[in-house]
Specification:
Layout lengths: L1 H21 L12 E2 L2 E5 L5 E4 L1 H15 L29
Antiparallel strand pairs: 1-2, 2-3
Length: 97
């Protein structure tokens, strides 16, 4: 897996180098992607690219702390293993005349 990620990086780096050196393009932000819209990019243990909103969550928690003077109570997401929600199979409500 690491080899595939490294191959992708080298291919992309080659394209960028060609555009800048041979075609005189001026490109911004061609370095490694670290964050986008408050979310972080990183490879996990198996070198699979992951996208998580860690920076956004920290910003929201700090805002909550400044507004209410305390941290919000803990919540679990996704569902805890012991929870088993059921599918709603009831009939749809239709509009009455």
């Amino acid at each position: 897996m690491k080899k595939n990620l490294m191959d992708s990086k080298s291919i992309l780096t080659g394209y960028i180098t060609t555009l800048v050196d041979e075609h005189s393009f001026r490109l911004k932000g061609t370095g490694p992607t670290e964050s986008h819209l408050g979310c972080d990019f990183y490879p996990d243990e198996q070198y699979i690219l992951c996208y998580t909103p860690k920076k956004y969550i920290k910003k929201i928690l700090n805002s909550y702390d400044q507004t209410y003077g305390k941290w919000p109570k803990a919540a679990h997401s996704p569902l805890i293993n012991s929870e088993h929600p059921e599918l709603d199979t009831s009939l749809r409500v239709t509009q009455r005349e």
